[in-house]
């Protein structure tokens, strides 16, 4: 049996209405209740309100906002505040229902923690914190996380990403593909560890990259750019340089040698082996700012106005006195050799030697002529 529903009217005059009354009460004036009010079939006479001013009390509690606007220019949507599902085994929650569609854009489940959602006066939002200090502040005992889930409802492939952080690292997690972690930042990483400026240049250790990729190291260590292939099958580690004309690849091959080649070539243009052997597919062309034949005068050896060929005697004296050829210079044990300079010097000495051969040929020819004349006498 349902109990009486009691209300208190102005001037503290009270009355009780039986739930079995057939006629609705219509009050054609403002209604003022100077004490608490209970509405619902389960309200009782002598209800203990505590600090409640308005109480809704029965097994299905709803507040319906029924907008009766009929003009097309006015909004007409109906809303409802719902406390808990009405069916057996339903959920416990407080929700706001869009009554025109039956959807719940907002819902708070029973048992939610204290300060599950806090909006401060300045608009900062706290999740599990009463004192948000930034626009959105999330507090969690273990790895606070934000999830971005594309569920496929708009026809796109489902994909889920997590953005999270803990004492080990800040990370991006690809939940859909085995929870891989494509991006991780450890606590204590230096300022500007990775920086992208307005024109797309990437700085590593700098906020002023002046090239597409600019790496700066300030510690007392070597600046290192490392490319490593950890595939167990022995794949190459490659760096590719491409423009509109050609592509070049710098790589270590499957036997560990450093190789430069162009894609599609069956061989290589350059190979540097572990023992220091250098192999070139083509020729080696060298030069220095001071001249290819430094210190020799290159082909000017044959131009008397540019180079004075020393006498054979002077050249020989210099050679024996210094233990090296003038054009080639010293070749000391254990000291690196400048092949460009040595090659130019050898070429110069070869040219001088041919001049000496010609000089000796003329001397020999002159001696032969004299000998022939002597024999004729």
Q: Which features characterize this protein?
A:
377 residues; alpha+beta; four-stranded antiparallel sheet; five-stranded antiparallel sheet; 4 domains
Descriptive account of the structure:
The chain is built from 2 helices and 23 strands. It is α+β, with helices and mostly antiparallel strands. The strands form 7 sheets. A 5-stranded antiparallel sheet has the order 19-20-21-22-23, with no helix packed on it. A 4-stranded antiparallel sheet has the order 5-6-7-8, with no helix packed on it. Strands 12-13-14-15 form a 4-stranded antiparallel sheet, with no helix packed on it. 5% of the residues are buried. The model is unreliable at 1-17 (pLDDT under 50). Residues 1-23 form the signal peptide. Keywords: Signal.
């Amino acid at each position: 049996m349902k109990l009486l529903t009691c209300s208190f009217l102005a001037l503290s005059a009270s009355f009780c209405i039986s739930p079995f009354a057939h006629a609705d009460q219509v009050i054609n004036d403002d209604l003022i209740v100077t004490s608490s009010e209970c509405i619902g079939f389960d309200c009782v006479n002598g209800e203990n309100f505590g600090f409640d001013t308005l109480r809704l009390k029965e097994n299905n509690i709803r507040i319906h906002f029924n907008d009766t606007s009929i003009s097309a220019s006015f909004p007409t949507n109906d809303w409802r505040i719902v406390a808990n599902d009405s069916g057996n085994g339903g959920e416990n929650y407080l929700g706001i229902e869009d009554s025109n569609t039956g959807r719940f854009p907002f819902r708070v489940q029973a048992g939610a923690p204290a300060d599950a959602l806090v909006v401060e006066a300045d608009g900062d939002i706290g999740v599990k914190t009463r004192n948000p200090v930034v626009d959105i502040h999330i507090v969690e005992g273990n790895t606070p996380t934000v999830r971005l889930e594309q569920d496929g409802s708009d026809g796109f492939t489902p994909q889920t990403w997590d953005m999270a952080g803990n004492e080990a690292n800040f990370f991006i997690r690809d939940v859909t593909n085995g929870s891989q972690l494509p991006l991780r930042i450890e606590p204590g990483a230096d300022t500007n560890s990775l920086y992208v400026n307005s024109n797309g240049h990437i700085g590593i250790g700098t906020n002023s990259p002046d090239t597409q990729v600019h790496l700066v190291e300030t510690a007392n260590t070597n600046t290192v750019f490392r490319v490593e292939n950890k595939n167990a099958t022995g794949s190459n580690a490659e760096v590719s340089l491409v423009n509109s004309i050609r592509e070049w690849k710098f790589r270590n091959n499957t036997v560990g040698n450093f190789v430069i080649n162009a894609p599609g070539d069956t061989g290589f243009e350059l190979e540097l082996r572990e023992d220091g052997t250098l192999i070139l597919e083509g020729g080696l062309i060298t030069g220095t700012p001071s001249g290819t034949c430094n210190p020799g005068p290159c082909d000017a050896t044959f131009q008397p106005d540019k180079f004075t060929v020393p006498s054979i005697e002077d050249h020989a004296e210099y050679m024996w006195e210094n233990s090296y050829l003038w054009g080639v210079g010293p070749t000391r044990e254990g000291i690196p050799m400048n092949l460009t300079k040595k090659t130019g010097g050898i070429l110069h000495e070869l040219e001088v030697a041919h001049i000496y051969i010609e000089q000796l040929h003329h001397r020999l020819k002159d001696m032969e002529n004299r000998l022939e004349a002597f024999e004729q006498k």
